[in-house]
Structures are given as structure tokens and as C-alpha cells.
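User: Okay, second chain of the day. Same drill as before: sequence in, C-alpha cells out.
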Amino acid sequence: METLLQFDATWTLFFKNLIPVTPFFDMFFSFFSLRGNSILIWLFVMGFTIYLEESRNPGISERDKKFTFVFFVSFFLTSLLTIFILKDIFLRPRPYVEFNLPSVSKTCPADFSFPSAHASTAFAAASVLTFFDKKRKLFYYLIAILIAVSRIYLGCHYLLDILGGALLGWSISQLTIYLFRKEIK
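Assistant: Same drill. C-alpha cells below.
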């Protein structure tokens, strides 16, 4: 286990050091992190997507209602599982604690690191959005990746926190879509 944690710390620092620390990147990645409120980004993206679709077919459709329902179920199940269950099972300290980066502690929560709630909810959201709107798949996943990378840049998460969170969020969204497949069609 110690070897895995050392591997993770090494690769996290490697990826963190790929992007120079500048005021521009600080602001850019802080925007994508929004101190725990990344749902605001997804609400904006979701609203924008619905707006684009509504401009072609006016009126809120039954599909829009189903999409919104599945989106919120997936997003909140992912949040609950990540924040209130898994973080308290794994109890992994955040990188800023391990690497003694006190300036970062203002942007990172004080809870545990694994799995990343930002990455898990980002990939859950991107997955649901992609299911309902395949033509913007790259856009949705680009936002999810930027949210995940922002957590490494800011020193809030390790690489495996991000990868574990992304896999968890994607899996929960796929399960949610599967469970509600009859209602979606």
C-alpha cells in the first residue's frame, strides 16, 4: 500500500508541476473548482443545453423533464456516496496536508481526499449529459476533465483521488440511467 501511495504522490506532483503557477491559472482553475459548488457549473451547462434544444423545439418536453430528473438523481447520489460515506471510510489526508502547503488550505476543504467529490460529480454530470445529448460529448467531458485537473492544480487531491472519483461518478450515472431506462424512453 505504501508503494501505491508513493507512486500516487510522485505522479500527482508531476502533473501538478506541468502547469505553471500563475495568477491566470490560479483564477482559471479556481473557477472550475468553485469551492465545492461545482454544481453551479453543471446547472449553467444544463440550462445552456436545454436552451439550445428549446430554440429548435419550443416548450419544455417530456424528455427535458426526464433528463433533469436523471441528472439530479445521479449527481446527488454521487455526492452523498462520495462525501458522506467513502471519504470517511478511506480517511486519506489531502495533499496540501501531506506536502505542508498552508496557503492551499484556503481553497481546499478540511475533510478527506479520496475519492474526489468534484471529479465524481463532474463525471456523473458529463455522463448523463452525454447520454441525452451525444453531439456535445467532448464539451461535457472537457468540462469534467478541467474540474478534475483543477483539484490537482490547487493541491486539494491526488491523481488517484481524481481517477477514482471519475470512475465512481461515471459508474453511478450509468447505473442511474440503467435503473430509469424505462422512464427515459
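The chain is about 75% helix and 0% strand.

User: Thanks, on to the next one.
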